[in-house]
Amino acid sequence: MFLSSRAGLRSCGARIATSNTRCASVLAPTAPSAPTAAAATPLHNNNNKINYIQSFSTAAKPSTAQLVKQLREMTGAPMMECKKALSTPEVDHDLEKAQEWLRKYGSAKASSKVAGREALEGLVGVKIEGDRASIVQVKSETDFASRSETFSTFVQEIADAATAGDVNGDVDIGAFMASAKDSKGQVLSETLNDAILAIRENIQVDSMVIMKASSDKSVLAGYVHGRAPNSSCGSAAAVVEVEVTSDAGSGKAEEAAKKLAMHVVAAKPSYLNPESVPEDVVNKEKEILLEKMTGTNKPPEIMEKIIAGQMRKFYEGICLTEQSHMVEEGNPKVSKAMKSLGLEVKNYTLVGMSK
Predict the structure, then answer these.
(1) Which of 113, 203, 109 is nearest to 154 (CA)?
(2) Cβ 114 vs Cβ 202: under 8 Å
(3) I need a labelling partner for 22 at 20 to 30 A (CA). Which of 46, 59, 210, 260 fits?
């Protein structure tokens, strides 16, 4: 019995010794052999022992599906168009070359397909930078497209570029699009093609006006109505120039101009003041009033007074300075409201989507 137990202990001790030897071989530092597909990086622990972490390169080429997804996110182009671009021999699944291919062939194809389609929806974008402001109108075929982030971003890019230039008044849109660049340094005509490729609708830069303050005492402010989701562009917008005419107006001009821009969008005046109404428009209105009084047998002097009163109402409907301010309390006449603040309205621009 005793001998059997001692034999068992010797056997157990041998197994423990073998186990310890194995553990020591694992824990003992060994010089790394020259790596082939992997590199060994030594790390020192607190016990001054060296451990090795083997790092393996598992990077593999992305699949076609992954490349298509990346290309769609980068360009907004349809899935089949991205797949076609990547599989083209000269592209050979290179993302940068695929983008160039889409710009060259995809945009041209998309533009030719949508050219001539009616575009009645869209957005208006505004940018004010110091003494310069731009207000642009870009049209699309559907309201769904115009409310997309791709479209609203494009509209704002146009407005930003217009303000950064040195042109004033109405702009030659074709020349502007061919020369001006977006925030990424790309010519706007190419940016337009990219937007058409992504949205697949006819997109037109319909109008563009750039305002410049007429004096160093003037302030420009704007208002955008009916904004698209997550966008500063909307269905209508106005920019107003207000000049400080007395010390009382200092510090009030910007807020007053913003309120007046809101009024402009709501009231839609056609002219700044009675003096700016074209003579032919005035004469036409007087002719209409005279025709209405034909056969009334009123004395000429009475008819003249009646016409003068009717013309005042006419100006109140179409001239900004003569309208009742829709945003100020009590709705005072715009010219009087501005004068009471030590200000004068000098100019305005209104642009809206008409359906």
Answers:
(1) 203
(2) yes
(3) 46
